[in-house]
Design goal:
- The complex is a heterodimer of chains A (about 400) and B (about 240).
- Chain A is of the alpha+beta class and about 400 residues long.
- In chain A, α1 crosses α11, α2 crosses α11 and α9 packs parallel to α12.
- Chain B has a single domain, classed as Rossmann fold, CATH 3.40.50.300.
- Helices cover about 30% and strands about 25% of the residues of chain B.
- Chain B is built from 7 helices and 10 strands.
- A 6-stranded mixed sheet of chain B has the order 6-7-8-3-9-10, sandwiched between helices.
- In chain B, α3 crosses α4, α3 runs parallel beside α5 and α4 crosses α5.
- The longest helix of chain B has 16 residues.
- Classes of the chains: A alpha+beta (about 400), B alpha/beta (about 240).
- Chains A and B meet through α1, α10, α11 and α13 of A and α2 and α3 of B.
């Protein structure tokens, strides 16, 4: 008997009892669907992170305020804006590895254009910000020197904000929008960089201080909330980082032995670490889903054992008509395999549907790749072979004489 | 058949003992006989006389503890389980008292089944199954399932199945045991007709009326061969059926 004949016999036998066949494969269906879904969500999370890493730009260091002491009391990170525009200048001028740097102040506000309005992040910064992040314009221009120094009433929109405020085909460049009652002229619209990045409006740093975010920096008119700096090459990240740390300790007069009042971070490295964590969680979830496959396999074994018992006489007849032990084994192994493969196929369909539903309902990014589907199907074939073998072996070992005597 | 060729089946001092719960039961004791190509033989005896055990050994389903079974001169004891199965597919056609058709397959699929184990492709299997059904007069029922057929019809399908691989020998175990006498006579007539075409047939029965229709009768009692008689000629059939 050939494999093909085995599958024909198996399909014939399984068609006779469709409900039982379906219930038997349900465990496999659920297991495979879970694995496919978990993979899709995990891969989606990875894609999102990669996109975020890309959106920050390569070789970027981020300097944020650290803990500060005020009369012996230690305040939490970021509770005081410790960085200044002077720090930005010093970093640019004194550290040769730094190609570009920019300070930012940020807050949220309602932006209004004619009948439409939208709540978004207002980021006050300098043109250097776009250089650091390799962020190109879709149209228009960056801020001019005069606008940066003179607190010009201009704004550069992220693509999400431009889309929300302007109708299709309506050119935002040159249009007037209002933020907190201040009219501003749109001078540029940025390229898309990712859903999380594009929801922003940039104004010159001086404008932000004068018009919108001044109260937050009233301790020091020079303050910025954070600084981003671009390092020339990959290998220079660590060196540039310690140079910035030394420079800022001097400038901030941090006594030896005391904690820095700032933090220098490499966001891409931090996100890569996070990516590793996501992978670990995904693996854990896959392990849990595998338990469902295991249970599915046991249920298949159970039903196959019952089926062998029920069909003892059939086995006897087949043996008498010339079926070899291995033909009988192949027949029942094929049945288990067909159950698992069908279950696996239904599970893949279910998993794809489920992850698409999750993507739509929860707004998560999911990504289905052939590798995950292949892995899930390989798992179900393995399950069929492992859990189908014992019943098939048992069937093949039946004595044909005894089997023919059973009713 | 030349005199030099070995007999189809030869049993030499065959004994078969079963051990159940530590008690040895000898089902067949020191039985020897030969069956030649083209014979029709009735194996008779009361129940428990070892008829079925004898048939299992002739049919390669079982092996003797002592003595030897030769099929066309070859000792079957030396063959592996799987080799004996393959030999069974090609050389032995079984007919059972309870027909033993697979309930979930129709007549033609049942008839074609032994050819699956001879490695023959589906198209040829079905073509040969049709011819075999034709030979037993059941072609018009080819796509009926066993439950849709009468006992006599089921037994005809089973005979078609036994014949499909052109076996050396057809082994029939009480083939009329579950049938009424008229249908039984029809089945016996079918066997007689097959025998006239040269088919070797061994029929197990406890019915002396059936045995008288076979030229040769082997009688068993308590596992021992008590008589091996050959009639001069087959008596005329009382219920001749076309």
């Amino acid at each position: 008997m050939t494999m093909l004949q085995g599958f024909q016999i198996a399909l014939h036998a399984l068609r006779l009892n469709p409900l039982r066949s379906f219930l038997t494969m349900l465990g496999i269906v659920i297991g495979v669907a879970s694995i496919v879904t978990v993979f899709a969500i995990g891969a989606g999370a990875q894609l999102r992170l990669q996109e975020q890493i890309r959106s920050i730009g390569a070789n970027v260091l981020m300097i944020t305020p650290g803990a500060v002491y005020q009369g012996g009391v230690r305040l939490k990170d970021g509770s005081k804006l410790t960085m200044t525009e002077g720090d930005v200048q010093a970093i640019l001028e004194q550290i040769p590895e730094i190609q570009a740097a920019a300070g930012s102040l940020a807050g949220t506000a309602q932006v209004i254009h004619e009948g439409k309005n939208w709540n978004t992040t207002i980021n006050g910064t300098t043109t250097g910000h776009f250089m650091v992040r390799d962020w190109q314009l879709a149209s228009g221009r960056y801020f001019s020197g005069a606008e940066e120094s003179g607190a010009g009433k201009v704004v550069i929109l992220g693509s999400t904000v431009a889309r929300e405020l302007f109708a299709d085909g309506d050119d935002p460049i040159g249009a007037q929008i209002r933020i907190m009652k201040v009219p501003l002229e749109v001078v540029g619209v940025l390229d898309r960089k990712g859903p999380a990045q594009d929801d922003v409006a940039f104004v010159p740093l001086a404008t932000a201080k004068l018009r919108f975010l001044g109260s937050a920096s009233n301790i020091n008119r020079d303050s910025v909330a954070y600084i981003i700096a671009k390092v020339a090459g990959d290998g220079q990240m660590a060196g540039a980082r310690s140079e910035i740390e030394n420079l800022l300790r001097q400038r901030h007069r941090v006594p030896a032995g005391q904690e820095d009042d700032f933090k220098v971070q490499d966001p891409a490295a931090a996100m890569e670490a996070q990516q590793g964590a996501i992978r670990t969680v995904a693996l854990l979830l896959v392990a849990i889903a595998s338990v469902s496959l295991l249970v599915g396999g046991i249920s298949i074994m159970n039903v196959m054992i019952v089926s062998v018992t029920e069909r003892t006489r059939e086995i006897g007849i087949r043996r008498a008509l010339g079926g070899r032990m291995r033909d009988i084994r192949l027949q029942f192994l094929c049945e288990a395999l067909v159950l698992c493969l069908l279950g696996g196929a239904i599970g893949v369909l279910g998993g794809v549907t489920l992850s698409m539903t999750v993507a739509r309902m929860a707004g998560w990014v999911t990504s289905i790749d052939g590798q995950a589907i292949g892995l899930a199907l390989a798992f179900s074939i393995a399950t069929g072979l492992i859990f189908g073998f014992y019943p098939a072996h048992k069937a093949s070992k039946l004595s044909p004489i005894e089997a023919l005597k059973t009713e | 058949m030349t005199a030099a060729s070995p007999p189809l089946i030869s049993l030499q001092s065959v004994s078969r003992t079963y051990r159940t719960d530590g008690v040895a039961v000898t089902a067949v004791r020191n039985v020897s006989f030969e069956i030649a190509q083209g014979e029709i033989v009735a194996v008779m005896g009361p129940s428990g006389s070892g008829k079925s055990t004898l048939m299992n050994m002739i049919g390669l389903l079982d092996l003797p503890n002592e003595g030897a079974v030769y099929l066309q001169g070859a000792d079957v004891a030396g063959l592996s389980e799987d080799r004996r199965s393959s030999l069974r597919a090609r050389s032995i056609g079984f007919v059972f008292q309870s027909y033993n058709l697979l309930a979930r397959h129709n007549a033609i699929e049942n008839v074609a089944l032994p050819l699956v184990y001879c490695g023959i492709a589906r198209k040829e299997r079905l073509a040969r199954a049709e011819a075999s059904l034709q030979a037993v007069g059941m072609l018009h029922r080819a796509h009926h399932f066993p439950r849709q057929l009468s006992g006599g019809e089921q037994q005809r399908v089973a005979i078609a199945r036994a014949l499909i691989a052109s076996p050396l020998i057809v082994l029939a175990d009480e083939p009329t045991g579950a049938l009424d006498s008229r249908t039984g006579a029809e089945i016996l007539a079918l066997f007689a007709a097959l025998n006239r075409t040269g088919q070797t047939i061994v029929m197990i029965t406890h019915d002396p009326g059936i045995a008288t229709q076979c030229r040769r009768t082997i009688r068993l009692h308590d596992g021992e061969l008590v008589a091996d008689e050959t009639q001069a000629m087959i008596p005329p059939k009382r219920n001749a059926v076309s």
